[in-house]
Amino acid sequence: AQKVRQLGSWIALAQANSKQKLDVDGLVLDRVEAYLDRYFDEDRADAILEELDACPDFLAEMLRKKRWRHALLRLFNRHERSALLGFCARYLSEKGFHKEIAAVLSRPDDLGVFRGCLV
């Protein structure tokens, strides 16, 4: 993550002298999201939940950002057995992000996630 931030800051410095403005954060997030889509490993992700008693700080930070909420929900669509992604979806439901959940998730069979959307 630190290397990605550093690369982003270098790109930002390079574009400071350019007339064309790039969305550096967007470019970096696109690449990270593509990497997650390609290499997500349910077992390794679920091990995070098994090792901790509470929501990891990095995950809590991701869930505060709309783009990451959508990315995690899209991953949940593809990896419905992942305990970590299920935790994220239920957490978002508990926090009231029902419209985002309904817009992104394609399978309403997880009552823990969709309960708030149905009310």
UniProtKB/TrEMBL annotation:
Species, as recorded: Heterosigma akashiwo
Subcellular location: Nucleus
A biological-process GO annotation: negative regulation of transcription elongation by RNA polymerase II
Location, primary (coarse class): nucleus
One GO location term (cellular component): NELF complex
Gene Ontology molecular function terms on file: RNA binding
Presence of keyword Transcription: yes
Superkingdom classification of source: Eukaryota
Keyword annotations: Nucleus, Repressor, Transcription, Transcription regulation
Family: Belongs to the NELF-D family.
Protein name as catalogued: Uncharacterized protein
PANTHER family reported in the protein's UniProt record: NEGATIVE ELONGATION FACTOR C_D (PTHR12144:SF0), NEGATIVE ELONGATION FACTOR D (PTHR12144)
